[in-house]
Amino acid sequence: MNMINIVWLRRDLRLTDNTALQQALKRADKTAVLFIFDTNILDELDKNDARVTFIHQQLTKLDKELREMNSGLLVKTGEPLQIWQELVNEFEIGEVHFNRDYEPYATERDDKVKRLLQKNNISVFSHKDQVIFEPHEVLKADGTPYTVFTPYKNKWLEHFEAQQLKVEEKLKTDAFAAIDSSLPTLEEIGFQKSAIAVKDYDLSVVANYSKTRNFPAVHGTSNLSVHLRFGTVSIRKIVQQVYNQSPDFLSELVWREFFMQILFHFPRVVNENFRAKYNGIEWRNNQKEFERWCNGQTGYPIVDAGMRELNKTGYMHNRVRMITASFLCKHLLIDWRWGEAYFAKKLLDFELSSNNGNWQWAAGTGCDAAPYFRVFNPTEQVKKFDKEMLYIKKWVPEFQDLTYPAPMVDHKMARNRALETYKRGIAD
Asked: Any catalytic annotation for residue 359?
């Protein structure tokens, strides 16, 4: 049996400008490309989860590309540590390459796999790929992490000035190993095809992003987030294209890395308030009210439009994400963790760090949060950002009918209740 190197794809579902793959292809031995359907993750998902369909579609494309280079994609389903033990027995492996992931589950998984491989005298190399700067690369002068966005962003930009971004589009096509493997169907991994489709990203909006980004009825956002989440495009390629076009768009990409480093340095935020002084807030957590929010039946058209868009498409406009999140936490006094979990289940672009960071921002409990006394007025938000009600008419066509519910809570009363509850709950 010939020695092979293996590149383990996870959140980097592409062959071009993929750091781990580029590094592996430079080695003497032939390279095989692996993807593992991780049952630790799959077992938590609905059987028609649109993200699994999207991943499967991407893997099908990659397998086709690899077959044109006399190779193929090696796809396994199971618990990663067990799969790697089987691979060690099946192949003579020289090196394993993968791109680093910074989420708590991923770092623990990768450490276990690394130890197993090293115990079997296999060299393991991890690479920076899904970020411009890793969590330890943008730090304060004293070596501690930033917890406020603006100074982090300024340091990020300062570091970036010296960077020469290299985008590797060419592949060394004769360096792939011959793989005798077939891609399992969705049904074979226990899933079915979702009716929700992922849109291609569109950078033509970037030039006008500052003007259009807040208006949900306008085609003003890029649909990029899901592609960055699964690595169907590299962050280097995107930053190279947008860097001089829109500071606001670039800021959104820096926010992504800011929240990633927060999660890395403070993993407790997954289940806890970043600011412990908010732990005393007494959430109402009314289950029936939560269900009305989930189903887009609150009686506030902009909130309902957002929730219905999410439920139908797996997507929600960013401005509306802020409005719906604020409504849940402030108007209904429902724990941000409930909303965070619902978004995690529904969003195509769900990324633990950003989802957690943005929900804690909306609740006022996060590291760089909106002050607790900021309570979005949904009616005013419509006047500012959906004046013609085009977005609302699309998702809540019955909003002027008698069948449409009255607002489930009065804004003024809810705002006062939220302020009093927060004041009582916040520790000095």
From this structure: yes
